[in-house]
Amino acid sequence: MNGQTKAAAACCTTPSAICFWLEIFFAVLAPLIVIAVFWHPLSSAAGAFAAGIACGANWLKNRTYHCGISGPILLAAGALLLFAGMRFIDVSPSVIWIVAAAGVALSLCLEWRYAKRPDRSAA
Q: Which residue in 7, 77, 86, 104 has its CB near the most CB atoms, within 10 A?
């Protein structure tokens, strides 16, 4: 390649990418739940933080298209949920989760439309 590196294209979700995401999600969620037992403001944000971190790891490893979009959305939702739990902001957690879910759904639609699909002719 003449010393040049080629950027990996974003691709669609695969079963192995889903398994990797689940592994990271539960590995991150478990300690966050333990912390939330002692620090209650984290209880409503733990899931969003774990999902966002898992998306970031999945993007770095598998270049899953929607994780590149969903990760920051979920991390922002986690931060807002944490601030709401600490009463720094007055926003209903339901509103935050609905907006985050809409963002994740949009990212999945964008992935379906624009991401590179795996080559199925090789099977």
A: 77
Residue 109 half-sphere exposure toward CB, CA atoms < 13 A: 6
pLDDT tier, 113 (very low <50, low <70, confident <90, very high otherwise): confident
The rounded distance, in Å, linking the Cα atoms of 1 and 119 is 23
The span from the CA of 76 to the CA of 55, in Å, is 13
Domain boundaries, the chain: 15-114
pTM over 0.90: no
Strand, helix or coil for residue 91: coil
Q: How far is residue 73's CA from residue 79's CA, in Å, rounded to a whole number?
A: 10
Query: 116: which strand partners?
Result: 11
Please report the pLDDT score of residue 12 as a whole number: 83
pLDDT digits (tens, 9 = 90+) for 74-86: 999 999 999 999 9
11 dihedral zone (left: phi>0; alpha: psi -120 to 50; beta): beta
